[in-house]
Amino acid sequence: MKREERQQSIINLLVEQKTVDLDDLADRFTVSKMTIHRDLDDLEQSGVLRKVRGGATIDAGTQFESDFRFRERQGHEEKLSMARCALGLVEPGMTVMVNDGSMAAVLGEMLLQKRPLTLITNNAAIIDRLKSESGITLIALGGIYSAKFNAFLGVVTEEALSRLRADIAFLSTPAISGRLAYHMDDNVVRTKRAMIASAAKSCLLVSHQRMGHTALHVMADLADFDAVITDRTPDAAILEQFRRDGITLTIAATQDMT
């Protein structure tokens, strides 16, 4: 088996299992552990996975967010639930801003239900899906393309955002702790902050599984958002923290049942 084929097989295993074991991989592909180490090094350098003791994972760490290709396959029902809830904040005729990420990509497609709209985004999945749709004035933010986030980022993106204004911005985050939202990539953080600054209102979308975690960079205070939406009810301690901080949390699963 060629190196490229073996590495793709490792990616496929990570999609199914989230973690892989170094010894198991060496046995599976009948190669040395050193060969697997080099494969994992290559994939980590590409931002696909995070090496851990004895193997690798695609679970987020304080300095790592898994590749878009993995995230778009995870928790689809939960993303649909949050997107449907967020859609209730949108009215036809609005100018809407949507950030990078697989959660945002689900919402982006749903926005077709609210056309006519003006949509501002750096999310390549949304740009590709909506570029030919009638009733959508699509403003695609330029910048440096990141395959890991499937989005455009950097100074060009931030400069474009500074010259635009939206009625509402929808942002996602991989980590919340206390009253702060976090992200592990500084380019993504700057773009998200620019979106908050360029919108009259902003809404944060976050999985309940990402609560109680931190990442390398503080992205924003939860008080900066007009709405915070999650998929399911988090732990009681986290709910109490929200209450103490005066942050209103909308549970999408509860909204779906009403």
From TrEMBL:
Keywords: DNA-binding, Transcription, Transcription regulation
SMART domains noted in UniProt: DeoRC, HTH_DEOR
Family matches, as Gene3D superfamilies: Winged helix-like DNA-binding domain superfamily/Winged helix DNA-binding domain
Domain (HTH deoR-type) ranges: 3-58
InterPro entries: Carb_Metab_HTH_regulators (IPR050313), DeoR-like_C (IPR014036), DeoR_HTH (IPR001034), NagB/RpiA_transferase-like (IPR037171), Tscrpt_reg_HTH_DeoR_CS (IPR018356), WH-like_DNA-bd_sf (IPR036388), WH_DNA-bd_sf (IPR036390)
Molecular function GO terms recorded: DNA binding; DNA-binding transcription factor activity
Any Pfam family the entry gives: DeoRC
Official protein name in the record: Transcriptional regulator, DeoR family
Native source organism of the sequence: Rhizobium lusitanum
